[in-house]
Amino acid sequence: MIVGTHAIFQEQVQFNGLALVIIDEQHRFGVHQRLALWEKGQQQGFHPHQLIMTATPIPRTLAMTAYADLDTSVIDELPPGRTPVTTVAIPDTRRNDIIDRVRHACMTEGRQAYWVCTLIEESELLEAQAAEATWEELKLALPELNVGLVHGRMKPAEKQAVMASFKQGELHLLVATTVIEVGVDVPNASLMIIENPERLGSGAVAPASRACRSWCGGFSLRLLYKTPLSKTAQIRLQVLRDSNDGFVIAQKRLRDSRTG
Q1: How many domains does the chain have?
Q2: Strand (E) positions, the chain?
Q3: Is 23 a member of any domain?
Q4: Is residue 249 part of a domain?
Q5: Does the N-terminal or the C-terminal CB of the chain have fewer CB atoms within 10 Å?
Q6: Same structural domain, 24 and 130
Q7: Residues paired with 119 in a beta bridge
Q8: What does the pLDDT average to over 115-141?
């Protein structure tokens, strides 16, 4: 048995008698990547069985259950003790209110919080809040808190050091890009703010769903969106606000954007 990352999709990697492939976090792999691993069995005369797992089904997967050779099993109950995520969509005109909420959660309640951004640096092409600028802003607005920053351009050792500080309680607030959805397990963190969720769509749920796995006391998610919103963006946020069920979100995403 071999456990690996995207590296085992490489063309030069060969298997002897590959019979079973288990793909976790399906939404993080492209169609051709999953197909490449399945085709590793061609030289042995048969294709391996595939077990694909995900907490955030993509529309194409739902379509394959109807039109392709894909059977599904659904685990739709929450683990014992876990409560649903409380999701609230808030316009960026109330940004100061959100900052006050973070201060209260960290200083009064003794909890920790995430602040998730869609960009690393500010962009002239996209009207979205950048992680580095947000980090600088929050350090000034919340001088009583220790605020950390983590994003995909950092070296692995740097990211690990920041995450370790957050897990150990040395940081009150962690500003991050969506890289935060990998390896999040901090039981004391009970609040997450996601900037520009209208750009992420149903993908905004992913980091929150992972963060709340280790918190059983009621995880709060705040979707901080820029105004005005397009009709499509309003529908996306409505879905995220009204449901904690990844399957319901995927079905509505399939209805709105088709299989892709």
Answers
A1: 2
A2: 20-23, 49-52, 86-91, 112-116, 147-150, 173-176, 189-195, 220-225
A3: yes
A4: no
A5: N
A6: no
A7: 130
A8: 82
| Residue whose C-alpha is closest to residue 57's, from 206, 224, 229, 239 | 206
pLDDT digits 0-9 by tens, 198-211: 877 555 565 665 66
pLDDT for residue 25? 77
User: Is position 252 within any domain?
Assistant: no
- What secondary structure letter does DSSP report for 159? H
Inter-residue contact 61 to 87 (CB < 8 Å) = no
Phi first, then psi, for residue 222 (nearest 5°) are -115, 120
Together in a domain, 49 and 154: no
What CATH number has the domain bearing residue 141? 3.40.50.300
Q: Are 150 and 174 in contact (CB under 8 A)?
A: yes
Q: Is the pLDDT of residue 112 over 90?
A: yes
Is 120 in the same domain as 48?
no
Is the CA virtual torsion 33, 37, 38, 39 positive or negative? positive
Tell me if residue 63 falls in helix, strand or coil: helix
Q: Is the pLDDT of residue 111 over 80?
A: yes
Q: What's the Rg (C-alpha) of the chain?
A: 20
The pTM of this model reads: 0.75
Say how many CA atoms lie within 13 Å of 31 toward its Cβ. Answer: 7
